[in-house]
Design brief:
heterodimer; A: mainly alpha; 0% strand; B: 284 residues; mainly alpha; 15 helices; globular
Chain lengths: 315, 284
């Protein structure tokens, strides 16, 4: 090849007995590909292949056990999109996912603003604010399950002791409030990582800008609205995107606290897929629901990214 | 004067700061209430808990902690969780940094495509691959083994690892490794003896983030470990919730013990933690 001939003088100029550069480049490529191979192999076998297989299974009536199954075309998708149970799960996912994204971001921003105000012991307070985030959603939900017990739970006991007998409720067994209770538990946090990201961004807001605004007579609210808030635009988008993607797959709290009940009232999409695929032996149907979930997550990510980029251009 | 210097300037504590400190303390206590409640009740008996749900423990009896290990699978589940977390971390470190290095140093269009393939995994929820994976694991006889959980975790964590390492490696100069190659060190040895130590900042962030999320994971072991295994601590706890309806004190005790390792990890690596979380902001 022409590149090989062109490289040769350079190799000669190097004055060492090395193989021609083209061979070395090819060997370099081969070694680098070998470096990539183990991770790529595991990743393809554990993520890409099963995801593609899911698409295939979503077109079948497979029960998950029997090796024989038949192709049913798009029947599963049709069933899903006309199923009240699925739409209920979608609505719950929206309420819990989007709702918690908004509430937790508000909490985290508030907490970060408070931390940013501290000139003394900021490190200490940052640490203790982060501590609750070490408790997983699963463990927190497990403890809440018992605290919300109708007869012996902490919540109803306190309410009864304070004389609000009527306010003591079957928190997890009441159709009308159960999703609200789940949302409350998911949002019972000081934000953890989200707060840290906001704090880091707040600390990069130039103090000169804030001081200039203050000298010009801006009130605290105006400084926040016109100086701090626009500087946080990127962080808000990143945090909202991350929380929304996590929100689409909310599962642990539902599994622990209600198992989707009463009936199907508090199911989320992730729980629906789990329940249908493994509990009701409708693996084909469950796969179709999983593909719908994937499309939703992908659309959210792509749209959020596009929005983020459009904002970056403005800034 | 730079912003940082101005920030560090010594000032007297203002009344406003005192109010903020008080509010933050109250908020932390409120949000920690469930854990504190579980901690207190891990020292009480079932009779005490149901008789007076808001009562305080009469002493620090380790009774529940002993009984948790004697009467349930918790000990074995704890060991399983350790094996899964440790095994996954070791394997991740064995393949991910090397692959990221390979992608960055391979360059060109093929490297770009491999990178994008890895990153696509960030958008694939576990639910999408779970049903085919369970049936494959069944076929090759790995279902309900710790190996299956580790393998599934590996695939899931690879995307995030590649993203994190690749963005870091972009800033590492090529000269170091080229110099080593002239000296005749094998590429693999060059990588482990020269490159890998340079990646320490990103490795510490990656290990901390992954350790916490592996330890806390519930869904993957729930799906891949059936009753033939003691499960992980979270799986064991969820089974206890179903079976031990009259032993709340053991559930509280198990919940507290599940949190302890995270807190120890945090206490030991606090500095790296906060830094790592901001490096890992991409994952959140």
């Amino acid at each position: 090849m022409s590149t090989a001939t062109a490289e040769r003088p350079a190799a000669l100029a190097g004055g060492r007995a090395r193989p021609p550069r083209a061979t070395r480049a090819a060997r370099h490529r081969a070694v680098m590909l070998l470096f990539i191979a183990p991770a790529l192999l595991v990743y393809v076998l554990m993520v890409i292949a099963p995801s593609i297989q899911s698409i295939q299974l979503s077109l079948t009536d497979w029960d998950g056990i029997n090796p024989a199954y038949e192709y049913v075309g798009l029947a599963n998708y049709q069933d899903i999109l006309t199923s009240d149970r699925f739409w209920n799960a979608t609505r719950n996912t929206l309420v819990l996912g989007l709702g918690s994204a908004v509430v937790i971001n508000a909490i985290a921003l508030g907490t970060a603003l408070m931390l940013d105000k501290l000139h003394h012991a900021q490190g200490f307070f940052r640490t203790i604010v982060y501590l609750p985030a070490l408790v997983s959603g699963f463990i927190a939900a497990t403890i809440w399950k018992y605290m919300l017990n109708f007869n012996f739970g902490a919540v109803n006991t306190v309410l009864r002791d304070l004389g609000f007998e009527g306010a003591a409720m079957d928190w997890l067994g009441d159709n009308d409030i159960v999703v609200g209770v789940l949302l409350f538990i998911v949002c019972f946090t000081l934000g953890g990582n989200t707060t840290l990201i906001y704090l880091a961004n707040l600390q990069s807001v130039p103090q000169d800008l804030v001081e200039a605004a203050e000298i010009d007579g801006a009130s605290r609210g105006q400084v926040f609205r016109y100086v701090t808030w626009p500087m946080l635009a990127g962080a808000v988008t990143v945090n909202m995107t991350l929380m929304m993607i996590a929100g689409w797959t909310i599962f642990d709290q539902v599994m622990v606290l209600t198992a989707g009940g009463p009936g199907f009232v508090s199911e989320t999409m992730a729980f629906f897929i789990y329940k249908v695929g493994f509990g009701e032996y409708r693996a084909g149907y469950g796969s179709a629901a999983a593909i719908v979930l994937f499309i939703v997550v992908m659309a959210t990510t792509v749209l959020a990214n596009r929005y983020m980029r459009s904002r970056e251009v403005q800034a | 004067m730079s912003t940082a210097e101005r920030r560090r300037e010594r000032r007297r504590t203002t009344p406003g700061e005192v109010v903020v400190m008080a509010v933050l303390s109250v908020l932390v206590l409120a949000v920690s209430f469930p854990v504190l409640y579980a901690l207190l009740n891990s020292f009480r008996s079932y009779a005490e808990i149901t008789k007076d749900p808001m009562g305080l423990p009469t002493g620090l009896s380790p009774d529940n902690y002993v009984r948790l290990f004697q009467t349930t699978d918790y000990g074995e589940a704890l060991l399983n969780t350790l094996i899964i977390t440790g095994g996954t971390l070791v394997l991740l470190l064995a393949v991910v940094p090397m692959a990221a290095w390979g992608i960055e140093r391979l360059g060109g269009r093929s490297a770009r495509w491999i990178y994008l393939l890895f990153i696509a995994g960030l958008m694939i929820p576990f639910q999408v691959r779970m049903i085919p994976l369970v049936s494959s694991m069944n076929q090759i006889g790995l279902y309900s083994t710790l190996t299956s959980v580790i393998l599934v975790h590996l695939g899931g964590a690879a995307s995030f690892g590649i993203l994190l390492y690749c963005s870091f490696i972009k800033g590492v100069p090529r000269e170091v490794e080229e110099a080593a190659e002239v000296d005749g060190a094998g590429r693999l040895r060059t990588f482990w003896s020269i490159v890998f130590p340079m990646l320490l900042p990103v490795t510490s962030a990656f290990v901390i983030i992954q350790a916490l999320s592996l330890w806390n994971d519930f869904f993957i072991p729930l799906v891949f470990l059936d009753a033939s295994s003691a499960g992980t601590i979270n799986v064991a706890l969820s089974r206890m919730v179903g079976l031990l309806t009259s032993q709340w004190e053991l559930i509280y005790t198990g919940a507290i013990l599940a949190i302890v390792p995270s807190v120890v990890l945090f206490a030991a690596f606090q500095r790296y933690f906060i830094k790592g979380m901001s490096i890992g902001a991409v994952k959140g």
